[in-house]
Amino acid sequence: MLEPSMPQTSTGERWSWAYPAPPRWLLWDEYSDGGERAVAVCHDIDGLFADSPPPAYERLTLLGCRPEGPLAAALHGDPWLGDLVLEPVDHQHPAKYGDRVTPPYCCAAYLCDVTVTGARPSAAGGGLLDVDLSGVVDRRDEEPPADRPTGTGFRLTHRETPLGVCQDVAGVHRARPDLSSAPVTLVGCRPEPPLRDALAALARPGAAARRRRITATVRAVKADGTTVSAVSTGLFASVTGVRPSAVGDGLLDVTFDGGIGDPFPTGARQIWDRWYAGRPAEPGEWTGYDRALRHEWAGAALAHHGFGLPDRPAGRTYHLDGRFVTDVEGFYCAIGEAVNGPGGYFGWNLDALVDCLRGRWGAETPLSLVWHDSAVARQHLMPGYDRHRWGLAITFDYLLGLLAEHRVRVELR
Predict the structure, then answer these.
(1) Which domains does the chain have, with CATH numbers?
(2) Which listed residue, 27, 106, 130, 142, has the most CB atoms within 10 A of its CB?
């Protein structure tokens, strides 16, 4: 029987049961009006680890285009443009000041790694051009609608630099393959009241579909029975089936009609298995991973970070092992261990790094950072376009400037 040994809160309780296969994942409802509560505990979640297909380059055309700035230059020189934003505008009904919705929460389309592949006079006349492009349509936050937005044209920008206007676009607004992850199955599951209610609704043919709906974040259960947040991963789907589980008598396998929002890559399973037993005792366990899994390692370090602990006082010196800082993800892993020891966390993107430098994440500034083997990062963190992150590369010099701005004195060795 599953028994929490402490009052239920978002973290801190200990979960255990009398089966050989231990509980590994807790589904936690933090969205309902009735307060936070456990939804289910399970041995595994089929669908929690899944690889997304790589983004495809598409052929797009700006129709009736009047290019300017970098776009005009790309027609006669280096055809690579970088990123481009297509923002629908309606000249017949211009927006009043303050009415414009800020991207990405509108119908703007975001194109990454764009190259101009051709141009020709447009049938619209007036010296306008039809400009062919190759690029990746960004679908990470909100992809372009399948139907063309209402309006009379599009405004083109590149990192807020105007690129001109066009009357229409071809190839952007269309239906694309669904990126939703595969439907989830909770394997070896012990339902808590919210899921028991959903299962009861499943057994009643006339029950409202909304009663089978589950909204929950996913938390990892450690070997000692305590839980940690699995960062931003969650389940937002409806129950579709249930069967007895082979994991143990009384446990269930519960299927859903949807997948995990933002699942982990398949390679991250070994990272979470590694952290299951506890925090690493030695630094550098992340060094053998590629960029994607180094990011996942830093995410696991964030989940296991000791929140609420006081910062070490200002003026201290920390040592960063730079031998394996061959990418920006490696830098985040390395500075996490420099400040907070093996498996330590001190940011896993630029915004998070800045947040950590402001305090309450292990070290108070001003501080000194001795960056050993800094030549490795200087060689690898170079200017350019980062096709892993789909944006400008974060450079060695940029990181040094950011650290200095936040009162970190860096000594390069």
Answers:
(1) 25-49+182-268 (no CATH), 57-170 (no CATH), 283-412 (3.30.370.10)
(2) 27
